[in-house]
Amino acid sequence: MTITAPPAVARAGVLLLAGGLAVAGCAAPDDGGSASTSIVLADGYELGGYNPVAGHGEAGNSRIYDGLLRLASAGEAMPEFEPALAAEPPVADPSGQVWTVRLRDGVSFTDGTPFGADDVVATYEAILDPASASPLASSFEMLESVAAPSADTVEFRLKYPYAAWPTKMLLGIAPSERLAPGPAEASALNTEPVGTGPYRLTSLRADQAVFEANRDYWDGAPGVETLTVVHVPDDNARAQRVAAGEVDGANLPPLLADTFSGRGGLEVDANTSADWRGISLAPDGPVTSDPAVRTALNLAVDRDAMVDGILAGYGRAASTPIPDVYGDAYDPSAVFAHDPQRAQQILDDAGWRAGADGMRERDGIPARFTVMYFPEDTLRRDLAQAFASDAHEIGIRVDLDAADRSVLPQRLPRDAAMLGGGDLPYDPDTQAYATLHSSYNAPGVGGAYDNASGYVNPEVDAALDAGRRSLDPAERDAAYREVQRAYVTDPGYVMLVFLDHTYVRTASDWAGIEPILEPHSHGVDWGPWWNLREWRRP
């Protein structure tokens, strides 16, 4: 792969920026020294939207809410689930369609009201309620009903056996009386959240949120008493604020984070993730809808060079949405080799002929299409540029378009896009189903980014359904290996990389920092701060 000039120029600019600040900047802040119990973080994600029915904390990363279950670190391996608002692990009946959960006693919301089974029922029913227009509704389509047979017990009835149901119990629980009917995006919980979690929101502006420790937290009051999160959307601006000692940490893209390695008083953290980056291929595009073009592009890209040159080694090559963290469900043979010569032969055989300038066309249609990316996301920009360079080498011209988030989804049927996925990676089903299953092509099913390539493959559908409905671990593993094998013979995207999420923080004497496998989201809710509730002085 030939890395185009812009990524190299961007890296050089990053080095100069960070180096200059190191000379001229102030000392790094004390994010916890012997007296401080406050931390200030810079986040690239917008603040607000703290309503679990609207999707907040779906992967178990909310500081405001607890789910029935929560994540427990297993390092780079798949995390364990442990009881949170549940008093003990949930129990499934032999059919796998009825899950019973006994609830923890003596828990209160931060407004002083007691937590109980009615709150669990109301939260899940709000997601299912069409009036909520919850973005999570399609991912809970297997839930038939939820009920409280007693004051301390909740029973979930599913439409079919679903072994991955515990992943759905990471969802934060809100007070029933605050779940008013109507759209979730209009709920007061988005800006005035009330949960049972280790922190409560005390102040919210567009550029800053302040969280105070919940001193009555059922699992013990957090040692970090005040967390302030400032919204800084620009990557370089966040790096500046870390280098100048204005904040105690930030999420940064890999090349930018790497410039802080070895700098005194600062730590670079990298957490393995199942978060992929890849190119959706527009189903209505005359070029991107062609199976020959889709296969050729997958063979043309040099994924290893992207990992080394753009991710600074913080990541792994991706050919499908399923990474090796899934163990026996992962098929190591289901990969695309970097083979641009074979890619060109496939295009030749499909009638895409190269002109004098090396660019191809077929029946008067040029082999040319647009790839969109979010303008503020420098990592997606750099990956898109590298993809365009590799496509050019086999005679396909890719135009890049920094498209606003508000318009990009509407353009997906006709234009390609640099997308990310892996929103809930704690089971192969929640990792791959919405990305590849053809049911998400039906109007009104899922969100704009679900199956963004309009992918249809009956073999993949059948294997995904088998993995979703089986309760036998070996059968499930075999089904997901079949998903990967069928996919690489007929790809719908150009998967590129799995990211290691990178963060920079000031060194401190806080104990309790642990890695965890991360989902697509990688703001400061994750990184070294994902388990902030557990940080303690040594």
Automatic annotation (TrEMBL):
<protein>
    <submittedName>
        <fullName>Peptide ABC transporter substrate-binding protein</fullName>
    </submittedName>
</protein>
<dbReference type="GO" id="GO:0015833">
    <property type="term" value="P:peptide transport"/>
</dbReference>
<dbReference type="Pfam" id="PF00496">
    <property type="entry name" value="SBP_bac_5"/>
</dbReference>
<keyword id="KW-0732">Signal</keyword>
<dbReference type="InterPro" id="IPR030678">
    <property type="entry name" value="Peptide/Ni-bd"/>
</dbReference>
<dbReference type="GO" id="GO:0042597">
    <property type="term" value="C:periplasmic space"/>
</dbReference>
<comment type="similarity">
    <text>Belongs to the bacterial solute-binding protein 5 family.</text>
</comment>
<dbReference type="GO" id="GO:1904680">
    <property type="term" value="F:peptide transmembrane transporter activity"/>
</dbReference>
<dbReference type="InterPro" id="IPR039424">
    <property type="entry name" value="SBP_5"/>
</dbReference>
<dbReference type="InterPro" id="IPR000914">
    <property type="entry name" value="SBP_5_dom"/>
</dbReference>
<keyword id="KW-0813">Transport</keyword>
<feature type="domain" description="Solute-binding protein family 5">
    <location>
        <begin position="80"/>
        <end position="440"/>
    </location>
</feature>
<feature type="signal peptide">
    <location>
        <begin position="1"/>
        <end position="27"/>
    </location>
</feature>
<dbReference type="GO" id="GO:0043190">
    <property type="term" value="C:ATP-binding cassette (ABC) transporter complex"/>
</dbReference>
